[in-house]
Amino acid sequence: MDQRLSLDAGGWCPASLAVASPNFDARPEAGKPSLLVVHAISLPPDQFGGPHVEQLFTNTLDPLGHPYFAPIHHLRVSAHFFIRRDGALLQFVSTEMRAWHAGVSSWKGRERCNDFSIGIELEGCDTQPFEAGQYARLAALIQVLRERYPIEAVVGHSDIAPGRKTDPGPYFEWDRLAGLLEVEAGRLPGDFDKAQENQ
């Protein structure tokens, strides 16, 4: 975890474990991503470890592996990054491409957030706190993404799909992330420009 993160010319992070997902396509416009979306996922729900998230994102999840998997194994979804409980970083899709993570969504009146966002999944759920290593890795990843792209805001999935999604959930400490990013407490989720106005 002490290896500094970076992105290569193709939008891949050399410090991550690359697990290529087929669930992506080109962004529809020439513009660069401007939004970071924080998600939480655990498969089966509230259970950590194992290969199931990677299997879901690579279309190899066994529908017989757990009762929860049968109705979701056919989904074609992905995210750019996945941060495990110990802070290990996996990457499924180049940041230059559109990962299928947000679904029906909008931010500040702009719909289809997949078009202009980068999705970061944390191994977690709505019922348990996240780990210190996850916050550290997430902050480092956000910093390197902000160096490459004109990132205007960092939000949760629940912020772009209210009523439909709850992640990253009530145990995600936005103020803790803000402290690591040197952003004023209470300003995240939201726009970085607004968060830094009074600093």
Describe the model.
The protein has 199 residues and is α/β, with parallel strands linked by helices. The chain has a single domain, classed as 3-Layer(aba) Sandwich (Lysozyme-like), CATH 3.40.80. The chain has 5 helices and 11 strands; from the N terminus they run E-E-E-H-E-E-E-E-E-E-H-E-H-H-E-H. The strands form 3 sheets. A 7-stranded mixed β-sheet has the order 1-5-4-9-3-10-11. A hairpin with a 2-residue loop joins strand 7 and strand 8. One of its GO terms (biological process) is cell wall organization. Its cofactor is Zn(2+). Belongs to the N-acetylmuramoyl-L-alanine amidase 2 family.
Quickly list its features:
seven-stranded mixed sheet, Lysozyme-like, alpha/beta, two-stranded antiparallel sheet
For the sheet with most strands, the description reads:
7 strands, mixed
CATH class wording: Alpha Beta
State which percent range the strand residues make up.
15-25%
Question: What CATH architecture do you see?
Answer: 3-Layer(aba) Sandwich
Total number of helical segments? 5
Number of strands: 11
Roughly how much helix do the residues carry, as a percent range? 10-25%
Mean pLDDT: 94
Number of domains: 1
The CA-CA distance between the termini, in Å, is: 29 Å
Radius of gyration of CA atoms, rounded to a whole number: 16 Å
Which spans of ≥5 residues are poorly predicted at pLDDT below 50?
Answer: none
Strand order of the largest sheet: 1-5-4-9-3-10-11
In the CATH scheme, what's the topology name? Lysozyme-like
Structural class: alpha/beta
The dominant shape is globular
GO molecular function: metal ion binding; N-acetylmuramoyl-L-alanine amidase activity
Pfam families: Amidase_2
Catalytic activity: Hydrolyzes the link between N-acetylmuramoyl residues and L-amino acid residues in certain cell-wall glycopeptides
EC number: 3.5.1.28
